[in-house]
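Ops channel
N.P.: pipeline sanity check, posting one input/output pair.
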């Protein structure tokens, strides 16, 4: 807003913030708003969209920022002289530094509560992540065995027949893998599939994880993680 009639040459006070205050970082922040902010903050689609917005913003700022702040300073300056505009620009810079400090405090406030919530379940996240990978790898191995089992049985039968054994003899000797082995693999794959679904439900609650969803089988490495990452203020990890 132009102020060409100001007689005083003192630095103007620029009160407007460039960026919106971080509502979730205010002492009076609404818990539901904070929760919604945390959910969006960690959501991969939101993060990707934010990266695009920030990239476009920075490209726009690189083109428009100089003239934007020059015109802002002209509006706040005591008169139209370059000296007055410099005074106004210095005031704008001080204002930006003050806003930077305010944003830092707001982020620290939000991150402290955000980190505290994550610290309560971080070891469960890591243990569940371990169990999820192990179960997934085991299921892939079992599916491979089940897929090749008929061919292996056919080769075993052909080998026994070539050795002169009758069908009755083959039935007594048995084929490998046996029907019991195949049934056990199928049962194990089914149990692991249920485990994977359970762990996925746990991770679907991020960032507000509910450890009660998990079973003991999902937390085999929990004690190890609790020893490696005691309850401190540093997260230092990223679970998948």
């Amino acid at each position: 807003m132009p102020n060409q009639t100001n007689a005083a040459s003192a630095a103007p006070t620029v009160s407007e913030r460039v960026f919106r205050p971080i509502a979730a970082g205010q002492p009076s922040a609404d818990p539901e708003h904070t929760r919604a902010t945390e959910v969006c903050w960690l959501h991969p689609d939101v993060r990707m969209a934010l990266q695009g917005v920030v990239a476009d913003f920075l490209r726009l700022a690189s083109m428009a920022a100089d003239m934007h702040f020059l015109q802002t300073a002209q509006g706040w300056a005591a008169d139209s002289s370059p000296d007055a505009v410099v005074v106004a620009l210095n005031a704008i810079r001080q204002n930006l530094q003050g806003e930077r400090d305010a944003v830092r405090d707001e982020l620290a406030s939000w991150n402290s509560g955000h980190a505290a919530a994550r610290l309560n379940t971080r070891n469960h996240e890591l243990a569940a992540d371990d169990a999820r990978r192990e179960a997934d790898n085991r299921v892939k191995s079992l599916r491979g065995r089940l897929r090749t089992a008929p061919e292996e049985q056919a080769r075993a039968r052909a080998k026994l027949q070539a050795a002169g054994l009758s069908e009755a003899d083959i039935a007594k000797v048995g084929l490998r893998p046996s029907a019991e082995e195949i049934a056990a693999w199928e049962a194990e794959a089914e149990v692991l599939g249920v485990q994977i679904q359970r762990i996925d439900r746990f991770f679907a609650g991020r960032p507000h994880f509910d450890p009660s969803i998990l079973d003991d089988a999902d937390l085999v490495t929990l004690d190890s993680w609790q020893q490696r990452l005691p309850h401190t203020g540093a997260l230092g990890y990223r679970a998948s």
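N.P.: looks fine end to end. The chain has two domains: 23-119, 122-228.
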